[in-house]
């Protein structure tokens, strides 16, 4: 059967637009668009048949189905030509059984979805493979006005866009807030040949400018307000359920900034339920840094109005966003999934990441935000000891070496490094070395 998908207004306005059209907002009301699938056509295949098909494709060698995203092609962009797909076989990232950390906090069934174990080191690859593939098909058709793809970024989005653009041979432009991106993140788009524009503003300022620049349809907008990104990112929720043999966890906790990721997570899980693959939904938790917490403040007022703030400097730089674009979609996700929004201070997020590192992980600061929120909810008894909990780790810790070094040197502002473990400098004297080892082992006993 032929499956189809199109753009449609998230607010319910009439009208459909092709996924290969340059359009980001509803012409009637200005609301965001979302990719809508013909669920009735998809339901022609049974839930059991879908499960068998998806399981058969995991890590397959047949192009492009070995990708964790494109293995679910019918649920993402069903009509794209396989030859135009730009993929690094992203997705299929591991679920880390955080058994030791779980025991420490009284949550017996704790898992961490390691999305940083991806081509560019973050979950942004999941969305970018879809967006760049669609643009590639548009440009291959010969009638598209698009000449380049651009994004505003706090680091990870720019890395993903530049890498996938380079793989496709599509020019890319990234707008970064000057001095607010780690060196490891900055070098990625530079290495991939993107035009990197470091602006004297914050992310929200970069977002404003990139939207103005992309009003000319020759430059395509790649930020998460473009719902093609959401289609790729939604597969993380599907993949989590698949990795549990199609059983649904009780909670999924995710750090949020521009709010595209929690919107995507909810979208993938809703599709599974609509197709009868799952019979219930997990509860979702959106975790924000206290210094960039507009969604938390909106949640506290029962979403009566959207709150925007001037985001302050936070160690969780990728979610240092004060005016999130995907607010409406995220509100719906929290409400539909009996969700919670919670925040974490700089001290809490840094120490949560360090505590997890001591149990074998290597956490980025954004994962630290999600873990700190987990600790709070477990301590309050909101999350129960027998609940199955998944924390989504959005990026690899190696992209944030300065954060790690600063923590163990105890130089991070507003953070008392409880788990600091600096190197011990000693003379080349065996006796002193032995005494030092003995003291440390006594402390660890």
What does this structure look like?
This protein has 445 residues and is of the alpha/beta class. It has a domain at 95-121 and 230-408: Rossmann fold, CATH 3.40.50.1100. Helix content is 38%, strand content 14%. It is built from 16 helices and 12 strands. It has helices spanning 39-42, 47-57, 99-105, 124-140, 156-168, 183-191, 203-213, 227-233, 235-243, 260-274, 294-300, 327-336, 346-357, 365-380, 401-408, 430-444, and strands at residues 5-9, 33-37, 95-97, 109-114, 148-152, 172-177, 195-199, 219-221, 251-255, 283-289, 340-344, 388-393. The strands form 3 sheets. A 6-stranded mixed beta sheet has the order 3-4-12-9-10-11, sandwiched between helices. A 4-stranded parallel beta sheet has the order 7-6-5-8, sandwiched between helices. A two-stranded antiparallel sheet has the order 1-2. β6, α6 and β7 (195-199) form a beta-alpha-beta unit. The mean pLDDT is 95.
**Biggest sheet details:** 6 strands, mixed
Number of helices: 16
The CATH architecture name of the domain at 95-121 and 230-408 reads 3-Layer(aba) Sandwich
Number of strands: 12
Helix content: 25-40%
CATH topology of the domain at 95-121 and 230-408: Rossmann fold
Order of helices and strands: EEHHEHEHEHEHEHEHHEHEHHEHHEHH
Q: Order of strands in the sheet with the most strands? A: 3-4-12-9-10-11
Highest CATH level, the class of the domain at 95-121 and 230-408: Alpha Beta
Judging from the principal axes of the Cα atoms, what is the shape?
globular
The low-confidence parts are none
Rounded Rg: 22 Å
Structural class: alpha/beta
How far apart the termini lie comes to 63 Å
Could you tell me the mean pLDDT? 95
Beta-strand content bin: 5-15%
């Amino acid at each position: 059967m032929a499956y189809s998908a199109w753009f449609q207004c998230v607010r319910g306005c009439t009208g459909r637009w092709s996924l290969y059209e340059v359009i980001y907002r509803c012409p009637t009301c200005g609301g965001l668009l979302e990719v809508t699938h013909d669920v009735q056509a998809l339901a022609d295949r049974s839930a059991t048949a879908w499960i068998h098909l998806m399981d058969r494709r995991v890590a397959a060698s047949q192009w492009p189905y070995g990708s964790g995203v494109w293995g679910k092609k019918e649920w993402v962009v069903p009509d794209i030509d396989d030859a135009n797909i730009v993929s690094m076989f992203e997705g299929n990232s591991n679920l880390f059984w955080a058994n030791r950390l779980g025991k420490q906090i009284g949550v017996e069934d704790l898992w961490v979805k390691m999305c940083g174990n991806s081509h560019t080191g973050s979950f942004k690859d999941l969305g970018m493979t879809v967006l760049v593939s669609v643009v590639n098909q548009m440009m291959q058709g010969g009638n598209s006005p698009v000449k380049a793809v651009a994004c505003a970024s706090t680091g990870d989005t720019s890395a993903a866009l530049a890498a996938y653009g380079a793989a496709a041979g599509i020019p890319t432009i990234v707008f970064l807030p000057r001095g607010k991106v780690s060196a490891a993140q900055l070098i990625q788009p530079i290495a991939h040949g993107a035009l990197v524009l470091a602006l004297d503003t914050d992310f929200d300022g970069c977002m404003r400018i990139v939207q103005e620049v992309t009003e000319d349809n020759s430059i395509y907008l790649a930020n998460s307000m473009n719902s093609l990104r959401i289609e790729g990112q939604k597969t993380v929720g599907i993949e989590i359920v698949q990795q549990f043999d199609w059983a649904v966890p009780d909670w999924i906790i995710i750090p949020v900034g521009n709010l595209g990721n929690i919107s995507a997570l909810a979208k993938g899980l809703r599709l599974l339920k609509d197709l009868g693959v799952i019979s219930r939904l997990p509860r979702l938790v959106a975790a924000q840094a206290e210094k960039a917490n507009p969604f938390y403040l909106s949640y506290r007022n029962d979403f009566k109005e959207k709150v925007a703030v001037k985001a302050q400097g936070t160690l969780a730089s990728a979610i240092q966003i004060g005016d999130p674009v995907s607010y409406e979609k995220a509100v719906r996700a929290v409400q539909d999934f009996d969700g919670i929004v919670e925040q974490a201070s700089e001290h809490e997020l840094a120490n949560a990441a360090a505590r997890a590192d001591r149990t074998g992980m290597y956490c980025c600061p954004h994962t630290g935000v999600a873990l700190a929120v987990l600790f709070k909810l477990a301590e309050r008894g909101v999350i129960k000891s027998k609940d199955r909990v998944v924390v989504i780790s959005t990026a690899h810790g190696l992209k944030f070496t300065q954060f790690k070094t600063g923590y163990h040197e105890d130089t991070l502002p507003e953070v008392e490094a409880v788990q600091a473990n600096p190197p011990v400098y000693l003379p080349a004297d065996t006796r002193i070395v032995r005494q030092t080892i003995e003291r440390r082992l006594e402390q660890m006993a």
